[in-house]
Each structure stands twice: as structure tokens, then as C-alpha cells.
């Protein structure tokens, strides 16, 4: 682990890009999983994944089998999807659990709050108790969880800062976005897999330098010249703009917009460390949950949020789809260049690249953020190793 961590030191101390090995190595991928994803607050899905009391949904994130549960009191919880008895996964498919969660191996049963309710034949045939196992001390292992704007977060290690402290910087940035106004259109949800390292997804997202060459459709309505860079310390990175001409086009116009936006922040989208892309633009919000699978494979889940009941009216169905389709077009173009960048990192000629800071200060900020997180210790946290700025960077006049 220590040798892997040292790969990040040049980014921390010399403002260099991450080396190719950071995108190709299994050892690096495993180290990032443990150091970055286990120790922070990860977005793993949405509260609406379990809409009804009794719903349970299994998923795997960061290699760990998990189980999202909505209990009888409508509280959403996350458990490790593993029986404490002999380690079998409890379920492999979403379902509504009308009774208890029953392990398929020895039929031990647990209620929706994780408590043991039955251990059949544990003391022998027809004997359902055993003095060597205290049923009251047997329970599913619950994962620390929280939710924000309908998104579900977990902290696998259990020792990250309080969620309120974790989310406070980006919450302050987005200001008056009303959580009561958000409406998910679940029919527009998209899942995809592609061949690129997860870090390339973020590096690409946080800069607009590539827009003219990669996104001709986006350049027409939201040109690069109108963008600015957003640095958010150890919490978030993004880009913004003072206008978004797409809203003037007939195929996008007409959806209710956020009431709190100003001309100075009409378009802002964010990467929230470590795995969430959150884009609360004027007329809808897109969410991309980045789910690393291997050094060169990443999954994405894309969700679309609209503002208020009026936006969800049937008459706006096509408008919602138009905006979602446009975002998916842009995202597919991004995936194409990320896969090219992944292939390029197999060349010995690539030694970390370089940053055009008037356009790519966000990319360097991301490398430094990861380096600080990877190199932190119990005695010296990332913020102590390297303070990172909170500022906007605009194009020169």
C-alpha cells in the first residue's frame, strides 16, 4: 500500500498529473477503493430505489455486497448483505419483504431493522435455541447511511466526519435549491458501462476545454468561452457559466426553472468527492453516480431531477425527455474520449501529461485532492497535508 501511495506524491508536491500506472494498476485500484471510497461518504443510489415499506434491494459497491432496506417505519437503512452466521449473501434480487429477511443457507431470519428473529434448529432438530449463541446479540451489520436531495450515501469504514459536515461546503454553494421541490423522473434513468478508469470520468467532467472539439452540439448552446472553473477545496470541483442558450431553443424551453438562480451562476455543475456528479442547472438536475469496477472499467448510473409538480405534468413529458436525451448525447461523447485517454495511458510515452491552467486548473486540483487523500494518515489529514483553494477562475477578458 505504501509503495502505491507514493505514486501520488509528485501530484501533491510538484503539481504533476497522475502517472499512467494510477489508471492501469490493480494494486492502485484496490488502494483507492480502501483509502478513498471506504473512508468517505459514497453515493450508492437513491432513496426511491426502495419506494415501499418492506422493499429490499441488493447491490454491490466498492466490491462489497450491500442491502438497501425500507423498514416498516419507512426509514431507509443499508446493511452489509451478509448473514452473520456463515457469511452467505441474504438475497440476490430486489423484492418486497412481507415478513423477515431470511438467509437462503440455514434460514436464519432477521427483521427489517436487522435484528435476529429466528434461528431454526440451531440447537438440533426441532430445537430453535442454543446456549452458545445469544440471539439478542446476533444482528445484521448496518452501514452508516444518510440521504441528501433523494440520494443515498454510505460510509463503509464508519469513521468519516458527520454527513452534515461532509456535505456542508457543496450545500452552501448550491444555496437555495429547495429539497422539497425535486422530482425524479425514474423513467429516464440510465445505466451504462464503459472501458475507462473512473478518474478519467471526473477529469473530463470538471473542464470545458474539450467542449469545442468533442461536443459540437453543446458548443452551439453553451460555448466554452462562457464557462468558468470552480475550485471547492477538498469537497467539490466544477464548472459554471453565466448563460445557457439551450433554454432559448424550442426543443428545450418550457420546463419550470429554479427560482433561486442569478445571472452570475446560471449554470453550475459539480463533482462531489469521491464519486458523485451533481448538475443542478436551471431547468433540471442531472445526477451521475460513478461506480468503479476495475482499473479500466467504470459503471455509471444517470438520474434526472425536475423542479416541482408542474415540471412532472404529462404535457412536459417530451420536454423532460429532450433535455435528458441531450445530456446523454453529451455524456456518450465524453465516454468516447475517456476510452481514448485510457488506451493512451498504456503508452510508455505518457508520464502524467500537463495542465493548461487557464482551462484545466480543475484537473490539477483533482489530482492534488486525490493525492492528499491517498497520502493522509491518522496524524495528518488531507487538509493538513495540502490546503486547497475555494475560488472561481474566469477566462481572461
Structure description:
The protein has helices at residues 2-5, 9-14, 21-24, 26-37, 163-174, 198-205, 211-214, 216-221, 308-311, 317-344, 357-375, 382-385, and strands at residues 42-46, 55-61, 64-70, 76-80, 95-96, 101-102, 109-110, 116-118, 142-148, 151-155, 182-184, 190-194, 227-232, 236-241, 267-272, 276-280, 285-294, 297-307, 390-394. The mean pLDDT is 93. Strands 11, 12, 13, 14, 15, 16, 17, 18 and 19 form a 9-stranded antiparallel β-sheet that branches. A 7-stranded antiparallel β-sheet has the order 1-10-9-4-3-2-5, with no helix packed on it. It is 28% helix and 26% strand. With 397 residues, the protein is α+β, with helices and mostly antiparallel strands. It has 2 domains: 2-39 and 178-394, Alpha-Beta Complex (Naphthalene 1,2-dioxygenase Alpha Subunit, Chain A, domain 1); 43-148, Rieske Iron-sulfur Protein, CATH 2.102.10.10.
Quick take:
With 397 residues, the chain is an alpha+beta fold. It has twelve helices and 19 strands. A hairpin with a 6-residue loop joins strand 6 and strand 7.
Measured as a percent range, the helix fraction is 25-40%
Task: Report, as a whole number of angstroms, the end-to-end distance.
Answer: 46 Å
* Global structural class: alpha+beta
Number of helices: 12
Looking at how many chains there are and whether they match, the oligomeric state comes to single chain
* Number of β-strand runs: 19
The level 1 CATH classification of the largest domain is Alpha Beta
CATH level-two architecture of the largest domain: Alpha-Beta Complex
On the 0-100 scale, what is the average pLDDT?
93
Q: What is the fold named in CATH at topology level of the largest domain?
A: Naphthalene 1,2-dioxygenase Alpha Subunit, Chain A, domain 1
Radius of gyration (CA) equals: 23 Å
**What best-fitting shape do the alpha-carbon axes yield?**
globular
Detail the poorly predicted runs: none
The name of the CATH superfamily of the largest domain reads Naphthalene 1,2-dioxygenase Alpha Subunit, Chain A, domain 1
Q: What is the number of domains? A: 2
Strand content: 25-35%
What kind of sheet is the major sheet? 9 strands, antiparallel
Amino acid at each position: 500500500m505504501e509503495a502505491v501511495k507514493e505514486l501520488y506524491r509528485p501530484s501533491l508536491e510538484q503539481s504533476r498529473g497522475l502517472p499512467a500506472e494510477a489508471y492501469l494498476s490493480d494494486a492502485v485500484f484496490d488502494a483507492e477503493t480502501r483509502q478513498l471510497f471506504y473512508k468517505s461518504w459514497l453515493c450508492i443510489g437513491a432513496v426511491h430505489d426502495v419506494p415501499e415499506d418492506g422493499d429490499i434491494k441488493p447491490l454491490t459497491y466498492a466490491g462489497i455486497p450491500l442491502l438497501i432496506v425500507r423498514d416498516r417505519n419507512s426509514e431507509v437503512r443499508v446493511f452489509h448483505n451478509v448473514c452473520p452466521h456463515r457469511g452467505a449473501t441474504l438475497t440476490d434480487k430486489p423484492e418486497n419483504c412481507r415478513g423477515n429477511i431470511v438467509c437462503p443457507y440455514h434460514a436464519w431470519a432477521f427483521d427489517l431493522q436487522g435484528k435476529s428473529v429466528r434461528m431454526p434448529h440451531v440447537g438440533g432438530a426441532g430445537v430453535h435455541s442454543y446456549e452458545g449463541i445469544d440471539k439478542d446479540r446476533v444482528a445484521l451489520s448496518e452501514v452508516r447511511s444518510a440521504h441528501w436531495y433523494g440520494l443515498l450515501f454510505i460510509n463503509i469504514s464508519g469513521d468519516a466526519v458527520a454527513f452534515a459536515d461532509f456535505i456542508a461546503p457543496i450545500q452552501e454553494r448550491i444555496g437555495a435549491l429547495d429539497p422539497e421541490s425535486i422530482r425524479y423522473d425514474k423513467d429516464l434513468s440510465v445505466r451504462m458501462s464503459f472501458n475507462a478508469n473512473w478518474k478519467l470520468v471526473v477529469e473530463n467532467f470538471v473542464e470545458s476545454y474539450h467542449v469545442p472539439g468533442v461536443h459540437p452540439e453543446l458548443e452551439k448552446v453553451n460555448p466554452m468561452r462562457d464557462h468558468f472553473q470552480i475550485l471547492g477545496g477538498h469537497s467539490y470541483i466544477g464548472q459554471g457559466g453565466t448563460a445557457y442558450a439551450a433554454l432559448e431553443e424550442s426543443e428545450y424551453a418550457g420546463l419550470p426553472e429554479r427560482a433561486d438562480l442569478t445571472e452570475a451562476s446560471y449554470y453550475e455543475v459539480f463533482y462531489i468527492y469521491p464519486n458523485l456528479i451533481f448538475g443542478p442547472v436551471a431547468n433540471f438536475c442531472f445526477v451521475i453516480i460513478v461506480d468503479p469496477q476495475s482499473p479500466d472499467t467504470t459503471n455509471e448510473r444517470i438520474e434526472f431531477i425536475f423542479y416541482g409538480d408542474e415540471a412532472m405534468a404529462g404535457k412536459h413529458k417530451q420536454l423532460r425527455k429532450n433535455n435528458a436525451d441531450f445530456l446523454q448525447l453529451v455524456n456518450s461523447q465524453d465516454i468516447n474520449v475517456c476510452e481514448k485517454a485510457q488506451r493512451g495511458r498504456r503508452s510508455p510515452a505518457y508520464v502524467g501529461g500537463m495542465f493548461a491552467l487557464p482551462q484545466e486548473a480543475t484537473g490539477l486540483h483533482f489530482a492534488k485532492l486525490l493525492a492528499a487523500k491517498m497520502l493522509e494518515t491518522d496524524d495528518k489529514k488531507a487538509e493538513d497535508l495540502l490546503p486547497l483553494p475555494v475560488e472561481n477562475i474566469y477566462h481572461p477578458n
